[in-house]
Amino acid sequence: MSLRNLSLAAKTTIDGFMTGANKSSIKGSGMEFSQYRSYMPGDDLRWMDWKMYARSDRYYIRESESETNISVRLLVDASASMDHRDGDWTKMEYARYLAASLAYLAHMQGDAVGLYVMREDGIFSLAARQGTQHLNRLFYQLEQAGPKGRFTEPIHYKDIYAGGRKRELLVFITDMYQQGEEIYELLDLLGALRHEIIVLHLMARNEMELSYEGFTTLEDLETGATIQVDTDAIKQGYTQKLTDHLTNTRKALLGRNIDYRLMVTDEPVDEALRAFLQARK
């Protein structure tokens, strides 16, 4: 993350350790053997394993795993709460590197990749395509995506219907900060369109641990409201409420068949991605 150029940072992060991460488990006439199954009337006789027949006097079809290209769409929360800073980095900067790394991974595997930037005044959309030139456009848009205002109002979600009808793998990078239920409304809409959804929930270490001393003033980055607190006095109650909040968030997303992972922004991007992909394997 010391590399300021997104394309170079993404290439450095991904190269060498995640090749083939999204190989499909669809069975068919691919190159890598997967399993045998009993012959069924109508099966293609080209995939009959005659050696198995000679050994067992039974008909078996040889199945293999086939590689597939998928369409990946990255959704990036660009609301003002993503400007929260812990140390040298904001959530938005972490989100940019995370999205850029995933985009480069998809490009490296021949997958189409697109982008939604969730802004207060609407949704910026970049259709999922393949190619180096398209990837560079995506990096440019990520670099321009600055945190501002509140999360996208539900009235703008209709813009999502203007996209293609193809099912996509959606990776939503967000801090899950919402005034009401607007993020859940968005996820319900995306689920109704039958997309597969992954939520990468970003939190900073100082949010997780309330690592401030004595009296301090906290500001809501989206509304500007401030509150003075004695962090030493409220830390125990804060920790319990945060635990309850994260538990409820996880349950709400898993109940919607959404893959969920909490990421803390002091974790190196490559380690966070490796742990996430291994968990999904």
Automatic annotation (TrEMBL):
Superkingdom of origin: Bacteria
Annotated InterPro entries: DUF58, vWFA_dom_sf
Coiled-coil parts of chain: none
SUPFAM superfamilies: vWA-like (SSF53300)
Residue span(s) of domain DUF58: 35-245
Record Pfam families: DUF58 (PF01882)
Entry protein name: DUF58 domain-containing protein
Organism: Paraflavitalea soli
Organismal lineage: Bacteria, Pseudomonadati, Bacteroidota, Chitinophagia, Chitinophagales
